[in-house]
Specification:
Blueprint (H helix, E strand, L loop, with lengths): L2 E6 L3 E4 L4 H12 L4 E4 L10 H14 L7 E7 L6 H9 L3 E6 L19 H10 L3 E3 L13 H16 L5 E3 L5 H8 L5 E5 L8 H5 L16 H11 L6 E3 L8 H4 L14 H11 L6 H13 L7 E6 L8 E4 L2 E4 L9 E3 L1
Parallel strand pairs: 2-3, 3-4, 4-5, 5-6, 6-7, 7-8, 8-9
Antiparallel strand pairs: 1-10, 10-13, 11-12
Helix pairs in contact: 3-4
The chain binds N-carbamoyl-L-aspartate and zinc ion.
The site of zinc ion (ZN) has 5 residues, from loops.
Length: about 350
């Protein structure tokens, strides 16, 4: 018996496309499935101003193959020098859909991030006034905080104080990895959402560390214990409108991953919808996949849902390339460690 599922075309509310040859290679992997994506600004140098976001958007559109349609939703990288007027103008023109907060040093290319949150207060207040969401990489960077605790500590020490100090600020907790993150979202009705990746629904920290270190499962925030993975799975498959897909697909070449100091990031753009369908089916929640991947995100961002659809069909194990060739070197596609049966047809 063929099983199939038709849903509105999904969007990706957290994506790394990079630039140059890497952008050229990975963009079609996303555009094949997703109509739009929130584009992360952590290039070197970062995308800080409206003018830089406009130029990056042009480079993305120039890299899009003929016949594919895709809308990049641009973000600005918040620094202690960000100008609130520039942010407001980039939002008013329709170019920028969010501002991204990286605590300085939290992850790949985050050196220009925020150290002193008092210095960005004016920008955050302007964003609250105009309704522009703040996307937050929610990890503290203090050396004395264990890496597995950094998300939970961030919520208490940074996120909750920022939200209390800035009423009306709309916040997306990006790529949550803990029950603490899911619970914080559920406990606060207004102005708060969270993205969840496909890979954090699949791996826990054992997958990274047991039986030899697996660099392709290393990403930030790092996968946590199994009970946290189960909490994320419950949140994603619940239909709760505050949780939506942000793949955090983050390409790094194999030499940069398979290294004595390997880069953080999982590349899921190629097989993301197959990964999600498999996990939602296991939870008997295929009827919630459209909410998570196609409806909840636009609702939070106050954008229309996509009019076109995709169809997923269940059958023999899906084949997908083990690696994507890029001009910078091979990028390994996320391997869940089990066969996938749902393909986008
Ligand atoms: C991202 C990257 O490579 O840019 N890496 C990751 O592990 N997720 C940065 C980020 O989103 O933290
Ligand atoms: Zn990311």
């Amino acid at each position: 018996m063929t099983q199939s599922l038709t849903i509105r075309r999904p969007d990706d509310w957290h994506l790394h496309l990079r630039d140059g040859a890497m952008l050229q290679a990975v963009l079609p992997e996303t555009a094949r499935r997703f109509a739009r994506a929130i584009i992360m600004p952590n290039l070197i140098p970062p995308v800080v101003t409206g003018a830089q976001a406009a130029a990056y958007r042009d480079r993305i559109l120039a890299a899009l193959p003929e016949g594919m349609s895709f809308e990049p939703l641009m973000t600005l990288y918040l620094t202690e020098d960000t100008d609130a007027r520039d942010v407001a103008a980039a939002h008013a023109s329709g170019l920028v859909k969010a501002v991204k907060l990286y605590p300085a040093g939290a992850t790949t290319n985050s050196a220009s991030g925020v150290q002193d949150f008092n210095k960005v207060r004016g920008v955050l207040e302007k964003m609250a006034e105009i309704g522009l969401p703040l996307c937050v990489h929610g990890e503290v960077t203090d050396a004395d905080i264990d890496i597995f605790d950094r998300e939970a500590v961030f919520i208490d020490r940074v996120l909750d104080p920022i939200r209390k100090a800035t009423p009306g600020l709309r916040v997306v907790m990006e790529h949550i990895t803990t029950a603490n993150g899911a619970d914080y979202v559920k406990a606060h009705e207004a102005d708060l959402g969270a993205t969840i990746t496909a890979h954090h629904l699949i791996i826990n920290r054992n997958h990274i560390l047991v039986g030899g270190i697996k660099p392709h499962y290393y990403c930030l925030p790092v996968a946590k214990r199994e009970d946290h993975r189960l909490a994320l799975l419950a949140a994603a498959t619940s239909g709760d409108a505050r949780f939506f897909l942000g793949t955090d697909s983050a390409p790094h070449t194999d030499p940069n991953k398979e290294s004595a100091c390997g880069c953080a990031g999982c590349f899921t753009a190629t097989n993301c919808m197959s990964l999600l369908a498999e996990m939602f089916e296991r939870e008997n929640a295929l009827d919630k996949l459209e909410d998570f991947a196609s409806l909840n995100g636009p609702a939070f961002y106050r954008l229309p849902v996509n009019e076109d659809t995709i169809t997923l069909t269940k059958g023999a194990p899906v084949t997908y390339p083990e690696k994507i060739d890029t001009g910078d070197g091979p990028v390994t596609v996320f391997d869940p460690g089990f066969p996938l049966h749902w393909r986008v047809t």
